[in-house]
Every structure is written in structure tokens, then in C-alpha cells.
Design goal:
heterodimer; A: mainly beta; six-stranded mixed beta sheet; four-stranded antiparallel beta sheet; 53% strand; B: mainly beta; 11 strands; 0% helix
């Protein structure tokens, strides 16, 4: 069974500073990986996804993530955060086995950008 | 505009009074799912549907029912709500193919007194 660990429940960071949100997954098979963002009072929106190919994935709003198979990690990074990045971020994983996609979500990391 | 629409957005009700949360998508997606979001627990899947008349339990199905009579609609039914079902609920849809992202509604905040 898959599991996703987001080690930090909250991450405070000053505006214009870099940030890394950590995500580790556990799966015995090849996986697809996702990061979603949830702004206050909204549903989740896709930030970026890794399916195959280059391990560095670029997403919307200047975010990027790196897939590291040996460390089973998919950490999210942004070199310079803005106030508008304040939100909750969810890492998710699904198996690459064909057919129905069972997606498992992490518990989320709240990013608070401090002016 | 591609969207998943949930109604109501907010509901306060009492224990035992049946309620339905509606979900509709306009993307002709085959796969639809319901999640609940609770502090410290993230998103947990309640039920999902692979297509019309095809539904299955997720990780936390107890106390909930669903139906999929039409492709675009996937209502969540609480026959006899209890306070432990107070939560934030999300409906999501996707093509169902592995690797395809899910599209989420804006959520329904449910309080059961």
C-alpha cells in the first residue's frame, strides 16, 4: 500500500526567501507524483506532476519539484516566495499500474509567508 | 469553463437528519470521488466511482452512501448524520487514467450538532 509523509505540518518563511516543502513516499512499484495547492476557502489545484522523464519538474507560480527515486522523495521548492503563496500544500502519489488510479494524499503542509 | 460544482458550500444540521451534498462536473470525466479533510489527517477518500452505476468504497466509507446515475453527477448522502461526520468535504473528478490529475470542487463545510 502507498503512503505519503509530509514531515512539516507548518512552515513559516519570510517573503522573498526560498522554501522547500518535503515529501517522502512509500511504494513498492513505480509511481506518479503530484503537488496540489489549497488556498483558503478553495478546493485543491494542481501545482505540478511527475509522470516520467526529467526528474526536475516545473509547475505554476514558479514552483518546482525534484523526483529522487533512491530517496523516495519529491520535495517542492521555490527560490523566492510571495505573500500570495500562503496556502496549504499537499503531496500525492498514485501507482503506475494500469487502470484505476488510487491516489494517496499526505496530511498537508501549511506555508505561511511573513511580510 | 471546466469545473466541479458542489452544493451547498456550508451546512449546519442536527444529528439524524438525512442530508445530500451534490456534486456535478462538466468535463465528461468517468472517474469521480469524495474526500473528507480533517486537521492533521489530510484528505481521506470516502467513495469513488469509475463510471455510471459503478461505485466502490474508499478508505472511510462508514456512514456514507453515494450513487452515480448520470456521468456528470455524484451525490454524497448521509442517511443519519452524526457529529463525527463534521468535516470539510471535497468532490473530485478526472479521466480516471493513471497519472491524470484530479479536479476538485470548492468544498462543503458540514457541521453536525
Amino acid at each position: 500500500a502507498q503512503s505519503v509523509t509530509q514531515l512539516d505540518s507548518q512552515v513559516p518563511v519570510f517573503e522573498e526567501a526560498p522554501v522547500e516543502l518535503r515529501c517522502n513516499y512509500s511504494s513498492s512499484v513505480s509511481v506518479y507524483l503530484f503537488w496540489y495547492v489549497q488556498y483558503p476557502n478553495q478546493g485543491l489545484q494542481l501545482l505540478l506532476k511527475y509522470l516520467s522523464g526529467s526528474t526536475l519538474v516545473k509547475g505554476i507560480n514558479g514552483f518546482e519539484a525534484e523526483f529522487n527515486k533512491s530517496q523516495t522523495s519529491f520535495h517542492l521548492r521555490k527560490p523566492s516566495v510571495h505573500i500570495s503563496d500562503t496556502a496549504e500544500y499537499f503531496c500525492a502519489v498514485s501507482d503506475q499500474s494500469g487502470g484505476y488510479q488510487k491516489v494517496t494524499f499526505g496530511i498537508g503542509t501549511k506555508l505561511q509567508v511573513i511580510p | 469553463e471546466a469545473q466541479v460544482t458542489q452544493n451547498p458550500r456550508y451546512l449546519i444540521t442536527v444529528t439524524g437528519k438525512k442530508l445530500t451534498v451534490t456534486c456535478s462536473q462538466n468535463m465528461n470525466h468517468e472517474y469521480m470521488s469524495w474526500y473528507r479533510q480533517d486537521p492533521g489527517l489530510g484528505l481521506r477518500q470516502i467513495y469513488y466511482s469509475m463510471n455510471v452505476e459503478v461505485t466502490d468504497k474508499g478508505d472511510v466509507p462508514e456512514g456514507y452512501k453515494v450513487s452515480r446515475k448520470e456521468k456528470r453527477n455524484f451525490p454524497l448522502i448521509l442517511e443519519s448524520p452524526s457529529p463525527n461526520q463534521t468535516s470539510l468535504y471535497f468532490c473530485a473528478s478526472s479521466s480516471g487514467l493513471a497519472g491524470q490529475p484530479q479536479h476538485f470542487g470548492d468544498g462543503t463545510r458540514l457541521s453536525i450538532l
